[in-house]
Amino acid sequence: MGYMSPAEFIPALEEAGSIYKLDLYVLEQVLEKLRMLRDLGLHIVPQSINLSRKDFTACDIVEEIRRRVDAAGISRDRITIELTESVIGSDFDFMKEQVARFQALGFPVWMDDFGSGYSSLGVLQSIKFNLLKFDMSFLQKLEEGDSGKIILTELMKMATALGVSTVCEGVETEAHVRFLREIGCSKLQGYYYSKPVPLEHLIEFQDKHPKIGYENPAESAYYEAIGCVNLYDLAVITNGDENSFQNFFNTLPLGIMEIKEGGIRFVRTNQSYRDFIRRFFGIDLSDNAAEYSDSPFGPGSAFMALVRSCCRDGNRAYFDEQMPDGSIVHSFARKIGTNPVTGVTAAAVAVLSITEANEGTTYASIARALAADYYNIYYVDLETDRFIEYSSPVGGEELAMERHGDDFFNASRRAAGRIHEEDREPFYAAFTKENLLRELDEHGVYAATYRRLLEDGTAVYVHMKITRMQPGGRHIIIGISTIDAQMKQKERIEAMQKERDALVRLMALSEDHMSLYAIDPETGRYVEYSASDEYESLGFAKEGEDFFLEGVVEGERTVCADDLPRYLEAFSRENVLRSIRETGVFKLQYRLVINGEPRPVSLKIARFTEGNREKLVAGVRAWKTRR
Predict the structure, then answer these.
(1) Residue 220 shares a structural domain with residue 249
(2) pLDDT tops 90 at residue 232
(3) What is the pLDDT confidence band of residue 374, given thresholds at 50, 70 and 90?
(4) What is each CA distance from 462 to 336, 419, 450, 451, in whole angstroms?
(5) Sign of the dihedral through C-alpha 234, 238, 241, 245
(6) Between the CA of residue 458 and those of 324, 393, 426, 616, what are the distances in Å?
(7) Bridge pairing between strands 79-84 and 47-50
(8) 448 near 431, Cβ under 8 Å?
(9) Phi and psi of 258, rounded to 5°?
(10) Choice between 166 and 241, residue whose per-residue pLDDT is larger
């Protein structure tokens, strides 16, 4: 009979109460198709089944579908249930329960022809659909004026806010595709891509074009994440704080880029972002799905270093970068997701504003100059206490604007958990606005050293230095740098000096010590503090990581052969510590081969306390045998 419209037979089958037989038959044909695709080694992508209201009264359609899908060995999430608003509205409470049953069993449920009726929005308040399928009438009205675009854009924003995916029917032109991608429509359906074709044609096409293939289900969540970003929605980056940004284009330039080892590509951009890239870099991004290439921002771009850092660490960051014409572009980047199959990462990037080159030096350019020396920089207005925080990798030149804030000194106190508890009280007692102003007026600089806690709980020493931007001016620059290595080296030198002093006092009690060691009983780390010329000739290490292990190794080289078995049997960490626990001291006599001659020596190890730390002291002294 040729083509037959569903309107010719569906109403008749519904009236006869037989529509459920057709719908279950369609399901069985779909399941057979999925099994065939699976046997061909192709990915199984979800297939939609439309249900009639009469299906739910003629039988337990939920159970009938579950039974057939499970018997076919097809995952339930590969069968999508599509329901129209009219199906839902006829017996709302009953249908709400059936939707919940489908979803509890693992079947996604879509609302078909969303927007074609008058109660769609009311339905969304009570039923959480997995996806909204927008009626093709929306696209048919886009050319009638801006109102159609505004309505569809706002409905897409609403769906995204509700956490619901979207698909639009009737996509037939390039303009449709571009507009829907920019407003964050998750999926597109229509003749622009293809008219319905028989399964045999799809399989034949797959054989001829294997690289195109079917979507890998493992990548679906990733593509959903980068597909639903509305490129006209400022909330993507501001979380609603639109007043923080000024000097915008007519629309915020916003794009989605994918980053991998070999380069980047822009997968989605709005017109404003394409205009920005064309203006500053002379590159046409009309083809959003261009191949991966080097960054248009140039080799070694600080902006791309920041974007890669965001993708690696999952952070959000603001960034200022100088363009070739001298203007400063204020940008934002945040990670969207990572493709679990390819490892490619997607990020949203936006241009917040541009400071023209003739607007003079800004605090951002001053902070950038300090970036190589400070990992945190604050620009503070002393009259309003408003501040801007910048961060930079230690020793790097990239500068990221982390945040704006109010009431700097109170904000600092709220971050007290970042300071080591022993330093917290003295730091905040000294770090007040009054003390700061007095120090700046008297000395021109304010400085403080304290320990900062990292994410893993370890503490590092940092140094804070504060100066005014101009003498007597209202703005100050605060730079924080890491001095952990220097401070810990200083502590170590002081500790070693204390140990040396203690051991020197011990040496004074006995003039015939050949060598003295200080040993950490827990780690075995040791330091030699003195040695006679004879002992030096043996070539022992001055310090090391394991006194007991290295003592065995060196003993095999330097202990007289006749005494070596007894030495190796007695000299172990366990024996030494046990002897000290039981008698307070460990003693061992043996002979060292010095200058080719056996020399009798005595090793004595005891425990001593210096400050609140417990250590071992080991002394090797010469002794004379009786004749």
Answers:
(1) no
(2) no
(3) low
(4) 33, 10, 6, 6
(5) negative
(6) 42, 18, 20, 27
(7) parallel
(8) yes
(9) -105, 140
(10) 166
Question: Are 347 and 389 in a shared domain?
Answer: no
SS3 291: coil
Number of domains in the chain: 4
Q: Decide which of 359, 389, 414 is a domain's last residue.
A: 359
- What separation in angstroms does the CA of 390 have from each of 61, 299, 367, 374, 460? 59, 23, 8, 10, 20
CATH code, domain carrying 272: 3.30.450.20
What is the residue range of 448's domain? 370-482
Same domain, residue pair 132 and 280:
no
How far is the first Cα of the chain from the last one, in angstroms, to the nearest whole number?
A: 127
Cα separation, 268 vs 88, in Å, equals 35
Position 6 scores a pLDDT of 87
| Per-residue exposure over 480-514, b if at least 16 CB sit within 10 Å of its own CB, e if not | bbbebeebeeeeeeebeeebeebbeeeeeeeeebb
Q: What share of the chain is helix, strand, coil (3-state, %, to 5)?
A: 40, 25, 35
Measuring CA to CA, which residue among 219, 120, 218, 98 is closest to residue 164?
A: 120
| Token reading at 555 | 């003993």
Instruction: Specify whether 259 is located in the same domain as 287.
Output: yes
Give the predicted TM-score (pTM) of the model.
Answer: 0.52
What is the longest distance spanned by two Cα atoms in the chain?
A: 127
How confident is the model over 300-314, as a mean pLDDT?
74
CB 111 within 8 A of CB 83: yes
Give the span between the Cα atoms of 76 and 47, in whole angstroms: 10
Q: Please check whether residue 86 is in contact with residue 120, taking contact to mean a CB–CB distance below 8 angstroms.
A: no
Cα atoms in the 13 Å half-sphere on the side-chain side of 134: 30
Pairing of strands 543-544, 165-168: unpaired
Residue 364 within any structural domain of the chain: no
Beta strand 543-544 with 47-50 is unpaired
Contact 331, 325 (CB under 8 A): no
Paired tokens of 238: 């501001």
For 249, the token pair is 């284009």
Q: Which two tokens stand for residue 219?
A: 């990548």
Query: What is d(CA 327, CA 319) in angstroms, rounded to the nearest whole number?
Result: 14
- Residue 19, CA distances (Å) to 11, 47, 60, 108, 180 in order: 9, 19, 13, 22, 34
Q: Does the CA dihedral 418-423-425-427 come out positive or negative?
A: negative
